[in-house]
Amino acid sequence: MPYKFRGGVHPNYMKAPEEPVVVITPPPQVVVPMAQHIGAPCQPLVAVGDYVTMGQKIGENPATVSAPVHSPVSGKVIKVEPRLHPLGDMIMAVVIENDFQDTPCTDMAPLTEEELKDQEAILTRLREAGIVGMGGAMFPTAFKIRGGLGKVDTLIINGAECEPYLNGDHWTMRLHPEELLKGIELARIASGLDKAYYGIEKNKMDAIDLLNSKNPAQYGVEIVPEEVKYPQGAEKMQIKVITNREVKPGGLPAGVGCNVISTQTAYAIYKACYLGIPCYERILTVGGSAVNKPYNLQCRIGTPFSYIAEQCGGFIKTPKKIVLGGPMMGLIATSLDAVNIKGTAGILFFTEEEDKTVENPTCIHCGKCLTVCPMGLEPLYMYMYFKKGDFENMKKYHILDCFECGSCSYNCPGRMPLTHSFKTAKLLFAKKAADEKARAAAKEAENK
Amino acid sequence: MITKEYTFDASYQPQVRTNTDTSRIMLDVIIALVPAMIVSVLMFGAKALLLLLVSVASAVFWEWGYRKLMKKHDTIGDLSACVTGVLVAMVCPISAQWWMMVVGTFFAIVVVKQLYGGIGKNFVNPALAGRAFMMASWAAIMTTWTVPNSLAGIDGVSAATPLSYLYGTEAMPEYFSFCNLFIGNVSGCIGEVSALALLVGGIYLIARKVISWRVPVSFIGTVAVLTLIFGHEGYSNVEFMVYNLLSGGLMLGAIFMATDYSSCPTSLNGKLLYGFGCGALTVLIRYFGSFPEGVSYAILIMNLCAWAIDKGFRNRQFGVTKEDIKAAKKAAKEAKA
């Protein structure tokens, strides 16, 4: 019986695409950013004019916290230059002209029977295949599992998919249940554990039944059906619901002996180990009222948004916003030229219809933000002190412990920009800390 | 091929929001007040309707006029002035005059609400403050009770409220039966008489998640427990408790007044404490005060404590246990020493 967490909201789920996953032909030109993970960006390994095969490693960084990047198509490298990253900045990228041959790269063979049971072999493969947290955080998976060795006693696979619109994970469960269970088994072996828990929200009962019919116990997996509530899929909530442990403020999941990886990551682990396919494609949901036909696409990394929109029948209304990921926590892209990366779980094209911002947001002190905050914080007071620029009280009201799930803003009848303000506040804190450090350094230099 | 140029907003997360906005919430409150309004018109006749209409119209006018005069954005669309208007009329006896509503709503809307910054900023309940102002200005009219039409034949035109009998020396008249008190066939302020209508509204509000159950339940519960324990001569303890729950402004106060967003604490435990305080003060005033009724002053006093309660009774932060809090306190003490 899963435990419960306090707070949370029940948004309109809008899980639109009911067609199975559509595999789209890759675009004539892909743009592969060299930073698709948290940590050190990769250095390009190829130069203009090189011929690359599908799955060939084209970027790498030897740093511990990093993940290599592979070519999603075969073809000729036509440019190596900074390009627009979906999250806004110009980042070094490799532009490849697709020859539509999909000539596979033979560098990475499937793991042998023995290797599939060997912890070290799997971890090396996860790193080599460039696998990162594909739920959106893009933390290198090999590093996450290695960092938890000896501390982590519970491995959790996140299948909640609590964000509205997104149902790529749901479709992955329905189409590839055995592959998923095998992927989870590998993650479990890599973590050196006997058991893994797969938390899935109860609005995916068909997927839960299907997975259970595949005898998950033989893979050392237990399926945990969970209450349908946002943010069920947040890492801290998953840990609370499955183990009843609470991550301390400022702490990491490993601090309470847990590691959480996402459904898409488990599927990518399967492909990397059993098939020898590195992480160069993913399943993502395309939705929003601007799109003609919302689909789940199996789509190569580096596909421009404009191409993705075309594959979904183009726009029927003027899009006003591009949301990467779900609408609650998703970030905003501002150009159709940007490309999807490993962590893009969804691309939503919203029109004015979805927009509920008002001219004069007013706090009516109703406390609805506070009742839904899964972290037990008081957004209305955090906002008040943020507006005053009162850093001491912001800290006292734990503004730094907000993980920006957006529940407070979602539920706010006065349409206050709560989550956004806390994000800004965190940046201010970081800036303040940096300033203080610089000042202290300058003072020290003066004293010398 | 998409060739058209689009421009995109870089707006902030989350990208979706609930449909329930401020005006929807206020509309829910008005809907919840409809049963009580119907009862008041049935019991007290067309004059009750007149008072309600004048009160709402003047409250909206003051809100609009003040914002216009101060060159602030218009807020009558959020319907909060309508709610205040309805509530101001509801806490007046039927003997009140229509022009008193205009003055009362002026005090409620302009002095109590707008001077402090408008919706969400007032630190006491505007409608109750308006009532307190009217009580101070026209004490005689505000305490002259007329019995409902259906009872007019029995007891002439004016009569005391059940509460004044309850704590007085005279025996409770027979027509103040539990049944009459429950449906509202008694003398009192026009909106407070029917416990039934108010409870229906309260259940609607809780079901719609407009208000939390914490304040009304702890408020009414405290009054019930205290009156059950202490009792009063002439009544059995249970009888006395039921009379206390059904008479006076308890239901109206606990469901519609104490739950006013801006003057009530927001933390979960704070709400319970606040309701308890309201209940305890109500009983204290009813027993020992010079007015028979204590609900409005109890709420006004607790309104003033709301900020302190919110500071003192914060929600438990995720991941923080009682031991953590104790350890942090100890560490802070040691650091001081």
Description:
The complex is a heterodimer of chains A (about 450) and B (about 325). By secondary structure, chain A is of the alpha/beta class. Among the domains of chain A are: about 115-275, NADH-ubiquinone oxidoreductase 51kDa subunit (Rossmann fold); about 370-445. In chain A, about 30% of the residues lie in helices and about 20% in strands. Chain A has a 6-stranded mixed sheet with strand order 1-14-13-17-15-16, with helices on both faces. In chain A, strand 10, helix 5 and strand 11 (about 220-225) form a beta-alpha-beta unit. Chain A starts with about 20 loop residues before the first strand and ends with a helix. In chain A, about 55% of the residues are buried. The model of chain A has no long low-confidence stretch (mean pLDDT about 90). Chain B has a single domain, classed as Ammonium transporter fold. Chain B has 16 helices and no strands. In chain B, helix 3 (about 80-90) runs parallel beside helix 5, helix 11 runs antiparallel to helix 13 and helix 11 packs parallel to helix 14. Chain B starts with about 20 loop residues before the first helix and ends with a helix. Chains A and B meet through helix 8, strand 15, strand 16, helix 12 and helix 13 of A and helix 1 of B.
Helix content of chain A: 25-40%
Radius of gyration of chain A: 22 Å
Q: Would you give the CATH topology of chain B?
A: Ammonium transporter fold
Question: What's the rounded overall pLDDT mean of chain A?
Answer: 91
Task: Note the main attributes of this structure.
heterodimer; A: 448 residues; alpha/beta; Rossmann fold; six-stranded mixed β-sheet; 13 helices; 30% helix; B: 337 residues; mainly alpha; Ammonium transporter fold; 61% helix; globular
